What we know:
The complex is a heterodimer.
Chain A lengths: L6 H21 L1 E6 L2 H5 L2 H14 L5 E6 L11 E4 L5 E4 L7 H10 L8 E5 L3
Parallel strand pairs in A: 1-2
Antiparallel strand pairs in A: 1-3, 3-4, 4-5
Chain B lengths: L5 E6 L2 H5 L2 H14 L6 E6 L11 E4 L3 E3 L4 H13 L25 H4 L17 H6 L4 H9 L2 H11 L11 H10 L6 E6 L8 H8 L1 H15 L3 E7 L3 H16 L15 E7 L8 H8 L23 E5 H13 L1 H5 L9 E8 L5 E6 L4 H8 L9 E6 L5 E4 L9 H6 L8 E6 L4 H15 L5 H18 L5 H17 L3 H5 L2 H9 L1 H10 L13 E3 L9 H5 L5 E2 L7 E2 L9 H5 L5 E3 L1
Parallel strand pairs in B: 1-2, 5-6, 5-8, 6-7, 9-13
Antiparallel strand pairs in B: 1-3, 3-4, 9-10, 11-12, 11-13, 14-17, 15-16
Helix pairs in contact in B: 2-3, 6-13, 7-8, 7-10, 9-11, 10-13, 17-18, 18-19, 19-21
Enzyme class (chain B): oxidoreductase
Keywords (chain B): 4Fe-4S, Iron, Iron-sulfur, Metal-binding, Oxidoreductase
EC number (chain B): 1.6.99.5
Amino acid sequence: MKKLTNKDELQALRQQAQQEIAERNQNKNRIIVGMGTCGIAAGAQDVVNEILKELQRRHITNVEVVRTGCIGMCEREVLIDVVRAGEDRVTYGQVVPRDIPRIIGEHIVNGRIVEDMVVGRLTAV
Amino acid sequence: MTFYRGHLLVCGGEGCTSSGCNEVHGAFREAMRKKKIEDEIKIVQTGCHGYCEKGPLVVVYPEGVMYNRVGVKDASEIVNEHLVKGKPVTRLFLTDPISVDQVPKYEELDLFRKQHRIALRNCGMMDPDSVNEYIARGGYSGLAKMLDTMQPAEVVNEIKESGLRGRGGGGFPTATKWEFCSKAKSNKKYIICNADEGDPGAFMDRSLLEGDPHSVLEGMIIAGYAIGADEGYLYIRAEYPLAIKRIRNAINQAKELGLLGENILGSGFNMELKIKEGAGAFVCGEETALIASIEGERGVPRSRPPFPAIKGLFGKPTIINNVETLANIPYIIDQGAQTFASVGTDKSKGTKVFALTGKVKNSGLVEVPMGISVREIVYEIGGGTFEGKKFKAVQTGGPSGGCLPESKLDLPIDYDSLASAGTIMGSGGLVVMDEDSCMIDVAKYFLTFTRKESCGKCTPCREGTMRLLEMLEKITAGEGEMADLDRLERLAKTIKTSALCGLGQTAPNPILSTLQYFRKEYETHIKDKKCPAGVCQALFFYRIDDHICVGCGVCIKACPTDAIEGERKQAHHLDMEKCIKCGGCVDACPFHAVIKE
C-alpha cells in the first residue's frame, strides 16, 4: 500500500474503497460470519469451514465469504448474514455446520430465506 | 466427462417417493426425449430437501428455479416452456410462505429497536481486518479533518462541547482531563487506551476492539494530537487474544497507509502506538496501577494526586481513556460536537454501551441513548424476564456497582441518576435478576471477586473485603445475627472512605445497595433462617411429598449420595443427613414430588 500524504489522498482512497465495496455488493453474493470471541467460542470457525465446503461441493464461485465482529447478539451466535447481490442482508442465528447446506441451498441458490432460522434483516446498503 | 447445459433435480426422498416422484422422473425423461434435449439437460435424483409437504420438488439449474407439487402432467410443460424456451412456469412456483417482507428488520427487533449506535457504529458491519472497509465507512476522515483544519486546543474544545464523559465508569468529563494534560509542560506526553476490561459480565470493550479496531486507534491519534503526545499504549488484557491480534493488524495497516507513525497524512504530526498485554488483574484497570504495570512494575495503585494527567507514565503527563470513550472520538470530530450532544440528557451526552445479561430473554450488547430508563432496557430491549418469573433487581456497574429494585425501574440511565440511587454506570455491565436470585448471594459473589482481586497494598481493601465476605458467608450459612447488619454497614462505609484506589472504594457497593433495597431479605436469612430465593444451601431442605410420589425410583438413580430410599411403587424418603442439596432429584422427578423448602 502507498502511504497517504494528505487529506485528498485519503478521500480518494475512501471513494475507491467505497466503489470496490459497492461493486462487490452489486455483483456478488456474500456470506458474512460473526467472528468476535463470542462467535468463535460458539463455533464460527466450523461454520466457516462448512460454508467453504458447501460452496465447493456446489461449484458456487460467486459468493464471497467475509467476517465481521460482534454485532451485540452474542447469545445467538453463531450469526451469519447472507446477502444476495442487490438484496437485503438477512441474519441467521444459532447456526451450526449442519444448517449450512440448507441455508446455501435455499437462500444463496434459490433466493428463499430460511425463515425458521432468521434473526433479522438489514436493509441493503 | 459429459457437460450439460443445465441440471434438472427431481427429489427422491422418502416423502416425495410416496407422493409420486418416480413417475414424475419418468415423465421428464420422456418429455425431454421428445424434445431431443436429453443430452443437454441432466436429470439428477436428489435426496430429500426437507420440504416434503410441497413435494415432489423439481429444481432447474443453473437458474435454481424450484417447482413444487410437480405432477406427471406438469413435466412436459416445464420441459417445453422452461428448458426449451427459457420461460419458467410461474404457476408451479412455491407460493412463498417465506416472503422476504415477513422477516423482521433489524430496527424492528426488540434488541435493536431502541438502540442508537455511535461507538458500535461499525461493529458487525465490516471486516475488522480491512482498513479499506473502515475508510469506506468514513474512517479516518475525522483524523484528516482535524489535521487539516484544527489546532489542538480546538480539538479539546470540540470534545468539551460534545459533553463526552469517560465511559470506563467514573464519568469524568473527557475534555477536562485532556485540558489538564495539554496544559502540562513537558517534552514528552503519553496517551493510553485502557482495555483492561475485567468486570464480570462486561464485554463491550472487547467487542469494540475485535469488531472495529481502527476507530479505537483513530480515537487515540486524535487524543494524542489534542494533548500533544506522540506515543501511546494500548493496555489490553492477555485474555483477549483476538482483540490483541486485530489491534496489531490494524496498527500495521494504519502505519502502511501513513495514518500512524511519522508525519501522519503529511501534517508533520507523529504518533507511535504500542500494545502492552496485561496479565489480567482487575486492579490494573485502575489508572495508576495500569501505569505501574506498563512501566514493568507490579500493578498496584498509588495515591493521587498527582494525577496521571500531570505525572503519569514514566513520570510524564499521560491521558488514560477507556476503549469506548476513544471509539466515540472520531465520530465527534467527524460529525461535530452538536450531532453527538443532540443525543442523551443534559449532563450525560451521547450513548452508552451495555452488556445486558442475566435472567433476561434477549441478552447481548446494546448501545442506547443516555437517559433511557432501566425499564426500557430490561423490558423493551431485553424482552423482560423468563416466562413466569418475577423481576427482582438489576445490577449495574459490575463489582463496583449496586443492585436496583423494581421501584427504581423508571430511573433514567445517566451517570448522576445512577449515582444518586446508590449504584454506578461502571463500564456498563447490566445483570438482570429474577425471583430465583438471592441478593445476599449476589453480594457475596461480587465480594468474592473483589477480595480475590484486591492487590493488598492498603489495609481497608485487603482486610476489609475479607471481613465483609466472612460476614456475608455467616449470614448465608444461617448463622447471622441482627448486629451483623450494622457491622456490615459500618465496615462497608469505612472501606469506602479509606481505601487507596477505586477497587477498594467501590468494593462495598454491592453490599450497601442490597442492604438499602433488600434489607428484608437479609433479615429473613438471619431471623427466619430462610433463603426466599432458595439459593443459600444451608437454608433450604428437600422433602419428598408422599402424596405425589409414585415410587418410580428415578430420583434414587439421580442421587449421587444414596440419600433417597424406598420400595418400588411406595412413596420414597429422603435422608437430609446424606443429602448434599445438589437438586439432581428435583430435576429428575417427572411428578414434581421433590419439594424445596
